[in-house]
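Explain my protein.
***
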Amino acid sequence: MARTSFKLGRSSNPMMSKEDLNKLIEKKAFELYEKRGRKAGHSVDDWVEAERIIKGKLSK
């Protein structure tokens, strides 16, 4: 199984493009999907949670 986790910190580029932000959210959403046991039917929940996590880390 490939490791998909990553860390964000203060060194993250504050001028991140929308495309880069979406890629980070996509990776985190996939990580959440894998943690869930790859069960289908929760893609929107995973995306929203990933978006909350990533945006929260970027705002620190």
Summary: The helical segments are 18-35, 43-58. The chain has two helices and no strands. Residues 28 and 50 are 5 Å apart (CA to CA). Residues 26-58 form one domain.
